[in-house]
């Protein structure tokens, strides 16, 4: 059941960054136990509409948001504010390799579920904390949200149309990129810690900050500033460093052309019957095209308007110039390449009968991802885990439920 089937993860995180990490590990075979609050569970269960519909067509309490990030996990409900709930978590920690949490800095310490406390009962534990601003620094105790971090980390200053054009100004991404990337970095860091533990027997603490991740993922844009001392600005759908690397309006819609070198630029303009543009000294090389983009852009736009999207994509495909359409999600999932890669998947679901999800993009030849569990119902596996992993009797489980601990 995957490369990580020897690992158990206790996932105390909520919302997006932590659960995204947990789903990655679960897709790779780890046994991920999602710990949720009794009655309400993870906040994202209610982040809709849309909600999954049951076999009778009625809305369930499973939002599309929640479904996207909780595949292959088991759900257990535990009230960690009560001593009995804390004891359940500690017993599960003894049988786990990894803990993921995204509580405010210091919040779990009052429950005895912080790293130092749990390390005392399992010294090779790998413990990953995800917060908005990290465990140190003047902002450590602030709540951190993806949207705020996109602004603070510079992303929104370089995203959106140019400020001097209609609609210009800062723009967030259409998906919570700081959360998603933090989940990806957390996955990598945890796997590195597993390798270290397997070699040395020593666990460790991982401190991940959304703000740190947002700045790190600015990559060449941040490097442009560090190299030049000039704050980068927004370029809309164009690139600050490559021309043409942008959208163009064809006669019936929009296309993207990403000519990453001079040869591709020549093939682009030759396909549009404007070969003289590649011979013009202002446009012959990428640095010159970047310097003279204001003269070049309208010439290219005029050229592209003469053909349809389909005509351009066919021509540029033959010419080996990277290009593509701008699809809505209906078009995404109807695309022949997406269909061929089986990106859309269907899983059985206990209340809806079936649920459609996006398949993991990780393709491993020897230990392939196996989608074996749909996103769990709230507390779906509480009884199973308490009985099989902790050895609790039916009467003990009943008592915990009556007390509101599970």
Task: Report on the architecture of this protein.
- By secondary structure, the protein is of the alpha/beta class.
- The protein has two domains: 8-216 and 347-402, Rossmann fold; 245-326, formyl-coa transferase, domain 3.
- It has helices at 17-27, 64-67, 83-93, 115-119, 146-152, 177-200, 210-216, 219-228, 262-271, 276-279, 286-291, 293-304, 309-318, 329-334, 336-340, 382-388, 394-402, and strands at residues 8-11, 31-36, 51-53, 59-63, 73-77, 98-101, 126-131, 204-209, 245-250, 253-258, 323-325, 344-349, 353-358.
- The strands form four sheets. A six-stranded parallel sheet has the order 5-2-1-6-7-8, sandwiched between helices. A three-stranded antiparallel sheet has the order 9-10-11, with helices on one face. A two-stranded antiparallel ribbon has the order 3-4.
- A hairpin with a 5-residue loop joins β3 (51-53) and β4.
- α1 packs across α6 and α6 (177-200) crosses α7.
- The model has no long low-confidence stretch (mean pLDDT 95).
- Keywords: Transferase.
- It holds the Pfam family CoA_transf_3.
